[in-house]
TrEMBL record:
Pfam families per UniProt: PH_PHS1 (PF25349)
Annotated protein name in UniProt: Poor homologous synapsis 1 PH domain-containing protein
Domain Poor homologous synapsis 1 PH intervals: 17-138
Domain of life: Eukaryota
Protein source organism: Vigna mungo
Amino acid sequence: MAGTVAVIEQSVKKVRDEWEICFARFIPYPSLPSSSDLIPLPPRLRNLPPRGTWISSSSVAFVRLSSHLSNLLLTISFNAALLEEHYVSKLHFTWPQVSCVSGYPARGIRTVLIQKFAMRFPSIYEAESFIGVLKVTVAYQNL
C-alpha cells in the first residue's frame, strides 16, 4: 500500500499533462438598459438564464494541468501565449453525460464546460483522460 501512495505522490508532484483542445468562451449580452426609476424587475425577467453567445477559437489551443506550490493550476495557451490561468480549486467543471442506447451506461462527451468557457477535445478518450487526471490530482490534494 505504501508503494502505491508513493507512486501517486510522485506522479501528482510532477503533474505536467497537456491536451490539445478547441477553446470557446461565453460572452454575455449587455444587461437590459437601466432607467432612472429604480423599480424591481418582474419575476419573469429576473429569472431568465444568462443571455449571450459562444465564441470559439479557429486555431488549436492547449490545456495543461500543473502544480504550483500546493495548488493545482489549469492553464490554456495559444501558440505558447498564455490565455487563461486558474486555480482548479476555484473552478466548477461540468462534463455532460449521454446515453445513446438503453441498457448501456452513459458516457461523457468530448466537451468539458468550466464556468464561462468550454474545452472540446479531439476524442472522447482525451476528454476521459483529462477528467481522470483531474479527479486523481484533486483527490490527492484534498487528503
